[in-house]
């Protein structure tokens, strides 16, 4: 009924191959394990068992197990096996003598249990461990077996630690380490034995992993761990190890074995990789330019800067349709470039286009991308930047440089060491130097010894204070000719506020200075002449006046009644007329001179009515003689700040003129009115007199000694005096007139406060 | 009519005319004349040498301004400084052909000066002068 042994053997092999857990159980390196059928046939054993008995791996194949057991022990082993199958006991244990290769006897402890490896088929599993005491006694044979283990263990490159096991999960003690472990840790084997594996831990050992390890030990589970440990000399190293509990027949964990591997290098490589990946990532993310990866589906990656310059979030950009991002006019161009690039038709290309930000704002972008294959897809990895400001400033620079190039003022730009970096064409024209001669030179090559002593010092002080300096230089051209320049020198700052250059803007004002000098000289000369002339006038009028007044005095004293001779009387009459005329003319001239040289006579609030009444009084004779009708109305502006003698003279002269130049057969009518116009006091005199043809006399109207009528007692000084008086009171005078229709004189007074 | 009038003017024709005018207008009984300020000062200096009761104090001086040696203003200053107390009743009338308005202003600031007449001296001028309050107060109170 039961399958043949060979079939069973095969089934067990299959089961072991399929079940790694089971295989691991058999692969425990130093517990010898043998699997027996119910009738004592060896179905499987592990390498350790083979080693234990001095065989090579694979030496033992199935056969009856009794040939490996001393005959006297066989019955003891087999008599209890039926009770295992009958489930009366779970474990049987005992001591046994095993027969190894070349009939060596090994004393071993064993545990036997039932194990159900195949469905509904139970087998006996035997765990053997060599009894150290008995084998000690039997040194010749046992030590050989031990040395074989050690030889094997010590040859493996894997570090191995074997510990005992503590029942309550406490840290076990090391009972064995192999050569590889000693090489790895730097400890000698005897330094380790009796110690705990935790001897390798140190300050920076990863605690969480230690805790996990503790959990596994408590639960007697196998597992893989990585610890940051320390060698004997203190060098830290990463160790990866797997632990395996070894249990005795009673299922009690008796030992732990750990296989260890130094993974420091691996670890470091990984850390470096992670680090460089992180660095690269952060570099890309925090790059000052936008970085993107684009494939046929759209963006697969965008960095922070890209988001910032477009105003979209990374999530939005990954989902965005390109036509939404690119300005319609530029879209076809951009799309073609992307397609060409994706197909590998064009190499790396740089181009500009307009993009629409999330805010709707249109900006100029510049991009430069190259084709890569990413996850099997052709993609473009590129950088992008907002060049709007650069474009704008380029445009500005273009305009500015045009302006500078075409400026009529000469412009020099120097560096902070005063070396000329740029001059404009106007400079070349004015200075006579060629560009090649002047670049790199100091502007002081234009300097002459004639400048004001402190001008340059002041200029430098100003520039040191980061202020502009204005001044005038007397410089010389290349040909040695001197010229005047009006100069503004300013420091230039870069965007960071650091002074980088000086710029000088200079106007050639030589001609202007010459003209000004000439003008000043002329004014000086004229002032002297004028003063001389004034002095002369005073002296003349005074010197003339004395004899003239004497003549008047003599005439006053002459008694005509005493003269009998008719002719003498007639001559005397002519003498008298001429003298009076001479005196009057002289009086007028003097009065004019006084007005001209005395501008600061006291202003007072004066009533027009008062002046008018006084004038009528003094002119009473003339007024009544010609039946003159005068209508005066000063109600709108009764008074003003004036100089009394001047306003008296104005009334006197204008009324006198109106009477004098009345139309021959018409009684003179004079209307006088004062009023406010635009906040100013206006005084208007209108008459119905002869009037004048203003077209003809225009410029001479208010001139001195201009006579417009052949009237016998006209002296031509009246209007001149009126104008002088009005101007002396800061007023304006206007005259309108028509022949035979009369004359209107309008005087507008200034509002100034003369108090 | 005043008793004693002094004329100070550098122009001899003016002096001649004035004397005639004063006489014709019966303005005063006696006229004394000098051609400049310092000669006129010398007169007062000479008078000071006499006993007070013998001194001849002019009641009015017609004084020109623009004169050589000592002009009218310098004369007034010297007079006020030295002879004012000895000749308290002597008044001054400026008689000038001066065209400087400052002279007229200055004449009005001094009590001793009865005012300013612009040359020539005429009968009308004298009549007007005699009508002024200043003239009446000074010469007709007693």
Described by strand count, sense and barrel closure, the largest sheet of chain A is:
6 strands, antiparallel
Q: What share of the residues of chain B lie within helices?
A: 40-55%
Count of separate DSSP helical elements of chain A: 26
The CATH topology of chain B: Rossmann fold
Estimate the strand proportion of chain A. 25-35%
Strand order of the largest sheet of chain B: 2-1-3-4-5
Proper CATH architecture of chain B: 3-Layer(aba) Sandwich
Q: What kind of oligomer do you see?
A: heterodimer
Number of helices of chain B: 6
Any overview of this molecule?
The complex is a heterodimer of chains A (755) and B (142). Chain A is an alpha+beta fold. Chain A has six domains: 140 residues, PAS domain (Beta-Lactamase, 2-Layer Sandwich), CATH 3.30.450.20; 114 residues, PAS domain (Beta-Lactamase, 2-Layer Sandwich); 86 residues, 2-Layer Sandwich (Beta-Lactamase), CATH 3.30.450.20; 96 residues, PAS domain (Beta-Lactamase), CATH 3.30.450; 76 residues, no CATH class; 149 residues, 2-Layer Sandwich (Heat Shock Protein 90), CATH 3.30.565.10. Chain A has 26 helices and 28 strands. In chain A, the strands form six sheets. Chain A has a six-stranded antiparallel β-sheet with strand order 3-2-1-6-5-4, sandwiched between helices. A five-stranded antiparallel β-sheet of chain A has the order 8-7-11-10-9, sandwiched between helices. Chain A has a five-stranded antiparallel β-sheet with strand order 13-12-16-15-14, with helices on both faces. In chain A, a hairpin with a 2-residue loop joins strand 15 and strand 16. Chain A is rod-shaped. Chain A starts with a helix and ends in a 7-residue tail after the last strand. Chain B has one domain: 3-Layer(aba) Sandwich (Rossmann fold), CATH 3.40.50.2300. Chain B contains six helices and five strands, in the order E-H-E-H-E-H-E-H-E-H-H. The longest helix of chain B has 13 residues. The two termini of chain B are 12 Å apart. At the A-B interface, helix 20 and helix 21 of A face helix 1 of B.
């Amino acid at each position: 009924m039961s399958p043949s042994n060979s079939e069973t053997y095969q089934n067990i092999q299959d089961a072991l191959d399929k079940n790694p857990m089971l295989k691991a159980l058999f692969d425990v390196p130093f517990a010898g394990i043998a699997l027996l059928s119910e009738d004592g046939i060896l179905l499987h054993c592990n390498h350790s068992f083979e080693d234990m008995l001095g065989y090579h791996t694979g030496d033992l194949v199935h056969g009856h197990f009794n040939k490996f057991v001393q005959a006297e022990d066989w019955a003891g082993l087999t008599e209890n096996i039926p009770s295992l199958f009958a489930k009366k006991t779970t474990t049987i244990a005992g001591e046994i003598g095993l027969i190894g290769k070349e009939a060596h006897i090994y004393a071993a402890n064993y545990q036997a249990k039932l194990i159900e490896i195949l469905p509904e088929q139970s087998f006996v599993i035997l765990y053997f461990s060599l009894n150290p005491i008995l084998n000690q006694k039997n040194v010749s044979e046992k030590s050989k077996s031990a040395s074989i283990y050690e030889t094997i263990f010590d040859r493996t490159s894997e570090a191995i630690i074997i510990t005992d096991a503590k029942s309550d999960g406490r840290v076990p003690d090391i009972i064995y380490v192999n050569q590889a472990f000693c090489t790895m840790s730097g400890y000698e084997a005897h330094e380790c034995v009796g110690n705990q594996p935790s001897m390798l831990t140190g300050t920076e050992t990863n605690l969480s992993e230690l805790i996990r390890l503790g959990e596994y030990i408590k639960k007697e589970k196998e597992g893989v761990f990585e610890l940051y440990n320390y060698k004997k000399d203190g060098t830290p190293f990463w160790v990866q190890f797997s632990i395996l509990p070894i249990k005795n027949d009673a299922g009690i964990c008796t030992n732990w074995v750990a296989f260890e591997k130094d993974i420091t290098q691996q670890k470091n490589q990984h850390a470096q990789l992670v680090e460089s990946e992180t660095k690269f990532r952060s570099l890309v993310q925090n790059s000052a330019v936008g970085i993107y990866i684009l494939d046929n589906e759209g963006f697969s990656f965008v960095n922070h800067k890209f988001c910032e310059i477009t105003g979209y979030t990374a999530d939005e950009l990954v989902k965005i349709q390109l036509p939404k991002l690119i300005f319609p006019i530029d879209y076809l161009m951009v799309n073609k470039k992307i397609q060409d690039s994706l197909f590998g038709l064009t190499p790396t290309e740089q181009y500009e286009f307009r993009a629409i930000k999330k805010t709707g704002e249109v900006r100029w972008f510049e991009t430069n991308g190259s084709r890569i294959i990413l996850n099997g897809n052709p993609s473009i990895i590129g950088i992008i930047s907002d060049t709007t400001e650069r474009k704008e400033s380029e445009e500005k620079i273009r305009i500015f440089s045009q302006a500078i190039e075409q400026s009529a003022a000469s412009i020099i730009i120097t560096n902070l060491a005063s070396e000329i970096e740029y001059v404009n064409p106007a400079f070349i024209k004015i200075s006579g130097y060629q560009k090649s001669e002047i670049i790199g030179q100091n502007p002081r090559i234009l300097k002459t010894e004639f400048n004001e002593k402190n001008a340059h010092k002041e200029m430098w002080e100003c520039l040191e204070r980061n202020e502009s300096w204005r001044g005038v230089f007397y410089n010389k051209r290349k040909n040695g000719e001197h010229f005047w320049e009006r100069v503004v020198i300013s420091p230039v700052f870069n965007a960071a506020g650091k002074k980088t250059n000086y710029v000088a803007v200079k106007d050639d004002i030589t001609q202007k200075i010459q003209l000004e000098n000439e003008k000043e000289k002329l004014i000086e000369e004229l002032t002297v002449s004028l003063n001389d002339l004034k002095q002369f006038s005073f002296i003349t009028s005074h010197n003339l006046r004395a004899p003239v007044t004497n003549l008047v005095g003599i005439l006053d004293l002459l008694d005509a009644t005493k003269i009998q001779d008719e002719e003498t009387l007639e001559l005397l009459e002519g003498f008298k007329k001429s003298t009076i005329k001479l005196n009057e003319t002289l009086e007028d001239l003097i009065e004019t001179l006084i007005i001209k040289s005395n501008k600061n006579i006291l202003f007072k609030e004066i009533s027009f009515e008062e002046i008018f009444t006084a004038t009528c009084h003094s002119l009473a004779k003339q007024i009544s003689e010609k039946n003159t009708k005068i209508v005066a109305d000063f109600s709108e502006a009764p008074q003003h700040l004036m100089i009394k003698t001047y306003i008296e003279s104005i009334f006197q002269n204008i009324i006198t003129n109106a009477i004098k130049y009345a139309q021959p057969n018409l009684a003179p009518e004079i209307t006088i009115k004062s009023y406010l116009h635009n906040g100013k006091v206006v005084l208007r005199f209108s008459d119905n007199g002869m009037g004048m043809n203003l077209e003809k006399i225009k410029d001479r109207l208010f001139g001195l000694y201009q006579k417009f009528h052949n009237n016998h007692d006209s002296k031509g000084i009246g209007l001149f005096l009126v104008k002088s008086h009005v101007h002396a009171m800061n007023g304006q005078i206007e005259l309108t007139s028509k022949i035979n229709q009369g004359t209107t004189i309008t005087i507008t007074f200034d509002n100034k406060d003369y108090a | 009519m005043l008793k004693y009038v002094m004329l100070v003017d550098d122009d001899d024709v003016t002096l001649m005319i004035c004397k005639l005018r004063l006489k014709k207008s019966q303005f005063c009984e006696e006229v004394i004349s000098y051609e400049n300020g310092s000669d006129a000062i010398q007169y007062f200096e000479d008078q000071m040498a006499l006993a007070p009761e013998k001194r001849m104090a002019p009641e009015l001086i017609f004084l020109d301004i623009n004169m050589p040696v000592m002009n009218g203003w310098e004369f007034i200053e010297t007079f006020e400084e030295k002879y004012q107390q000895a000749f308290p009743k002597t008044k001054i009338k400026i008689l000038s052909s001066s065209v400087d308005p400052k002279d007229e202003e200055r004449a009005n600031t001094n009590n001793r000066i009865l005012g300013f007449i612009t040359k020539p001296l005429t009968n009308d001028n004298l009549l007007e002068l005699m009508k002024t309050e200043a003239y009446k107060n000074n010469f007709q109170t007693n």
